[in-house]
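User: Predict the structure for this protein chain, please.
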Amino acid sequence: MPPRIEKSSDWFTNNKEMTKEALKLSFQMNRQYTLSKDQYTATMHDNFMALSMAVRDRIVERWIKTQQRYHKTNVRRVYYLSMEFLIGRLMGNNMYNLGIEKNATDALEELGLDIEAVREQEMDAGLGNGGLGRLAACFLDSMASLGVPAHGYGIRYDYGIFNQKIRDGYQIELPDEWLRSGNPWEFARPENTVNVRFYGKAQKDLDPKGNPKYKWTATQDVLAVPYDFPVPGYKNDTVNTLRLWSARGTEDFDFDYFKSGDYAQAVYKKILSENISKVLYPSDDISQGKELRLKQEYFFTAASIADILRRFKSENPDLKDLAKQVVIQLNDTHPTLAIVELMRLLIDEYDIPWETAWGITTKVFAYTNHTLMPEALECWGIDLFEKLLPRHMQIIYDINAYFLREVALRYPGDNDRLRRMSIIEEGQPKKVRMAYLAIVGSSFVNGVSKLHSDLLKEKLFKDFYEFYPEKFNNKTNGITQRRWLLKANPRLSSLLMEKVGDGWVMDLNKLEKLNAFKDDKAFRGQWMEIKKQNKESLVRYISSSMNIKLDPESIFDVQIKRIHEYKRQILFAFYVISQYLRLKNSPKEFIYPRTFMIGGKAAPSYHMAKLTIKFINSIADIINNDKSVNGKIKLVFLENYRVSLAEKIFPASDLSEQISTAGTEASGTGNMKFMMNGALTIGTLDGANIEIAQKVGDENIFIFGLKAHEVEALKNKGYHPQQYIEKNPMLKEIFKLIQSGFFSPHEVKLFAPIVQSLTQYDPYLVCADFESYCQTQDQVSKMYLNADEWSKRSIINVAQSGFFSSDRTIREYAKEVWNVPVCGIL
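Assistant: Here is the predicted structure, written as structure tokens:
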């Protein structure tokens, strides 16, 4: 008989302790008393839930104490507003940050359980599309680990980024039901529910003094119910909060319809209301999708601003002091409506004069821009805006008039400048320029890499930089080493701790000590052995999940990111074809075996991106089934790319593909994750690639292609891709193969849109950069032949990755934008 587990008087004491025995007891008690299971009836998911609760119990006490401390000391707080938080799985990260990963592993082992099998039960919280949402998650980790008093705000999507399946080479989107088995990391807080209003009309009255007073009436209301996620810092007892909002109908059903037997209509309004938080990124190529998207943006910003004011008023009597205690960071343009909502509340609800309210608002907000593409900057049609948010449209007109008066005073008679800088874009239809509103309404505006910030000032927002030079600054993105090295790459982490200590976990610059070992032959051997073991682990995973056999001795050449034309997965695919042709036509010129891996999701309505996925898979079908090239090259499309899969890929990668057209990628963070795990980069001088090159030296990175100013000059002169195709026999042959149906024998013209785009327009200069890219790839292969040199350069990349920690980024925000202490020091 198994030993009986008794609830004892020291139950709470056990739940505080971090020892193996305490964790084992906590696991068993949660499994028995919370889940009503024992070792015989518990499923693997039950074991996951029991372990999650054991870990969670140790977080909760620290969470409550942290929030009590913030309240009692009335600290200045950072509020980070983002439409996306790509937090992935939380079990492992929480255990590492608590410092209990080893004890938890040992505790489960004594109970006959494999902790990795238990952890695999956790669903990825895919509440983001890519880099933007993952950056937000890394920033939350760094803020907690550095002791920054911070709260994240976003949406609790019922369905996150879709699950991607590949069928016959095509992407198929399936619902991401990440909540279907429950989520042990969230706590519902219905007592803080916020009423959010839409539609109606803005009614103008006069107050007793004869001043205009506005009321927003006849609205349709939705409830925003908060769910809190604890965010523990690394071994510092600080636990911050991520609050995500879920939409609920104000009424469960219309009783009159219910009585008449029309049950569908009885719950129609409830269903319509709750659609707001149903899915990440509704399709915006139809009017209903656009309206839902704007609803989502207002829903979470209005709820968040109400919550921020509630918390502020509980500790401070005067709203005019708001900017002393509150700073709100807007993660891209999506939360920009928070500026207008704060103005509405200050003016309409708290009777603060307009100019005073504007002075408060512009001191509270800061704005991070994440794109250089004008088409990616949000603009909303006036008609939709006025219908959905009539009072906010009035306030935007007022803000614009106030701002343009300032511009006119600075530049009298310059009407063209007024037109260019207006928040309202004239045209049919008129539109609200959300990025301009964010700049005007914020005290700071930053880009996310040096090149990106320079281009914002020189090109995209040139007029605004001339008008507000003091607002603009750069904050190069970063990633948390605790997730992307300590947790994702335990083999390498152990070696690093053995050689340079564990200080790098909180100060990544300490990895510079690795430079002392780069010429140590024995150390380089250990280094490459760890890489080989990581590759073998990925090989086993791909074999079991995709039934594809890979060669761990080959170069693992990897591009994983959102599928988009500017990221140029097509350029990578063309190189794969060139290597196939090289093996077929000139096998003696082939240098070294490679496994090409591409992963990422295409937006469901982005036809060219989805066709790119089909193209890649069609190439793979040809290459992987050609016995004459087996053992030399293989192409794999990694299905359903997500955070947990990324944690397996980065440690195993040899070469990182960062090949966007120069001047298009704001920063990139995948490039940093590869670098931190010892992969070398092949890339253009774009985004943070430039800063990576500066840190590691030109000899330790493979740079190719046109620079940003050369791209612009070529386009201004008149770019003709056919000229590049004609003078490059390999590129010419690739296009002939595609046009002949070689990769689509059953549908010859399937890839005609790709051919047409690249031969007639080639907006991202694939043809112009192809030759330089292939030449640089030859350098990669030759370098890999020399294992000592490759390992040396790999070591240097990890040693120089300290700058790319999100801890550094957050320190810069805290000091230069937020004016809040880090680790207790201002």
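The mean pLDDT is 94.
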